[in-house]
Amino acid sequence: MHLDKMASYGFTRLLYGFTRFRTSNSFGNAEDVLVLSNHPENYLAEFVQSGLYNHAPMVKWAAANEGACSWRLIGEMAASGAMTATERRVLELNHRYDVRAGYSISFHDVSVRAKGAIGLCAPPGMHQHEVDEIWDEHGREITVINNVTHLRITAMPFASSRRALTPRQREALEWVGDGKTMQDIATIMGLTPATVEKHLRLAREALDVETTAQAVLKASFQNQIFIFPDA
What we know:
By secondary structure, the chain is α+β, with helices and mostly antiparallel strands. The chain is built from ten helices and five strands; from the N terminus they run H-E-E-H-H-E-H-H-E-E-H-H-H-H-H. It has helices at residues 2-9, 41-49, 57-64, 72-80, 85-96, 128-154, 167-177, 182-189, 193-207, 212-221; strands spanning 13-19, 34-37, 67-70, 102-106, 115-121. It has a five-stranded antiparallel β-sheet, sandwiched between helices. The chain starts with a helix and ends in a 10-residue tail after the last helix.
């Protein structure tokens, strides 16, 4: 629905990214970054999976700012000679795939560790001044719609690229989060303490963390615990 709505404004290719594990100098483990896009798979492989996106001018802008920004910024950087060699690689890649004109929105999040943004790309053949004219007329409503979509996506349960938690793993982590002891959890779940520990160990492996406390925190960030069974 969101793709169709953005296409009605002239943005036919979208690239959304979100992480809850940002550090001072990175977006955290790549496996924990949620990426949604309708760009061609070849482009995503070169831009996202290779990690090249970390050096993209608009991604850098989104990491340091909130709000909306015209891709006119890229042209200004190129014209001034301010681009690094890696940033020029990003520019060359984008030109190969006709990713030339668009707008980026960087979302406000309540956690300093969280960051979400979306790149709205115009179709091949459209120039940046035409995109800017669209934004002058519809930018406010486009920004609102994308913020609502961002809030909806971040409220949904999602796992990393490793694997999702099983119902038993989720339940065991929930009881740990509620402060129950291992014996309490075993009694509540009708299991032995050894089986409970097995579920917790598998949950730690699935979440790629070392301690159960970290597992509870990460599962909570990913909306994988304290959710309705059919979520």
